UniProtKB/TrEMBL annotation:
UniProt protein name: Pre-mRNA-splicing factor 38
Gene Ontology annotations of biological process type: mRNA splicing, via spliceosome
GO cellular component: spliceosomal complex
Function: Required for pre-mRNA splicing.
Organism: Saprolegnia diclina (strain VS20)
Record's keyword annotation contains NAD: no
UniProt keyword Nucleus present: yes
UniProt main location, coarse: nucleus
Chain intervals with Acidic residues compositional bias: 186-211
InterPro entries registered for this protein in UniProt: PRP38
Length: 225
C-alpha cells in the first residue's frame, strides 16, 4: 500500500515519494485518512477524492495530523499520474482544491520551464480557498497560492525543489519574457487610445465632407438605400 507503483520514474533523481520528508511521510502512512481513503486509488477515483477536499493544509493540530490534501498529494507521487491528468486538475474551473492539488504536484515534480507558465496563469485566479494552519485557519486566494509556490521554499510543510530564476531561463531563450496582468492592461489602454484617435480623424473627415455637395449626396444616398 505504501510502495511506489511499478513503472514510476525518478523525479529530481529520487523516488517521487521521497520528495516528502521521511518523518512526514511516515505520519501520512499512519493516519486514518490514508488507511481508509487512499488504499487502491486509481487516477479516476483519485479525482473523486480530490473533488471532496474542502481546504488546503500540511499537518495541523498539536499531534501534527496530516491533512487529506497532503495524503492525496503523496498518493499522486506514489502513482505518478500522466501529465495530461495533472493539467486537467490545474485547469479545471469548478473545483478549486483540485486546482491547488495539481499545482502543488506540478511544483514538486515539474521542470522550471513547465512550472512557470502554468503557475503564472493562476496569478489571475482569485478564487478563495480555506487554508488550515498548524493552529487555526486562514483564507487565501488561488493567486496567492500560486505566488507562494513560486517564491517560497516550503509549502504545506513540504520542502519545494529549488526553482531556477525565471530571468535566467529567459536569457537562455527557454522562456519568453512574462507579461503581467498590468502590462496587458496598459497595452489594452494604448489600443483604446489609438482607436479613439482614429475615430477623431474620421470625424474630421466627415466635417470636411459636410461642405462637399458630393459628400452630402453620398450620405443621402446611403440613407435612402
Amino acid at each position: 500500500m505504501n510502495a511506489t507503483d511499478v513503472g514510476v520514474t525518478h523525479v529530481h533523481g529520487v523516488n517521487p515519494q521521497h520528495l516528502v520528508e521521511k518523518i512526514l511521510r511516515n505520519r501520512i502512512y499512519d493516519c486514518m485518512y490514508w488507511k481508509e481513503h487512499c488504499f487502491g486509488l486509481t487516477e479516476e477515483t483519485l479525482v473523486e477524492k480530490a473533488i471532496d477536499l474542502s481546504y488546503i493544509a500540511g499537518h495541523f493540530g498539536g499531534n501534527q495530523q496530516p491533512s487529506p490534501f497532503l495524503c492525496l498529494l503523496l498518493k499522486m507521487l506514489q502513482m505518478q499520474p500522466d501529465m495530461d491528468v495533472v493539467m486537467t486538475f490545474i485547469e479545471n474551473g469548478d473545483y478549486k482544491y483540485v486546482t491547488a492539488l495539481g499545482a502543488m504536484y506540478l511544483r514538486l515534480t515539474g521542470k522550471p520551464v513547465e512550472i512557470y507558465p502554468v503557475l503564472e496563469n493562476l496569478l489571475s485566479d482569485y478564487r478563495k480557498v480555506r487554508f488550515r494552519k498548524t493552529m487555526g485557519w486562514d483564507v487565501l486566494h488561488m493567486d496567492e497560492v500560486a505566488d507562494l509556490l513560486l517564491r517560497e521554499e516550503y509549502f504545506c510543510n513540504i520542502a519545494l525543489p529549488r526553482l531556477v530564476d525565471r530571468f535566467q531561463l529567459e536569457s537562455m531563450n527557454l522562456l519568453p519574457k512574462r507579461k503581467s496582468a498590468l502590462d496587458e492592461a496598459l497595452l489594452s489602454d494604448d489600443d483604446d487610445d489609438d482607436n479613439d484617435d482614429d475615430d477623431s480623424d474620421d470625424n474630421d473627415d466627415d466635417d470636411d465632407n459636410s461642405d462637399d455637395p458630393m459628400g452630402a449626396k453620398s450620405v443621402d444616398d446611403s440613407a435612402d438605400e
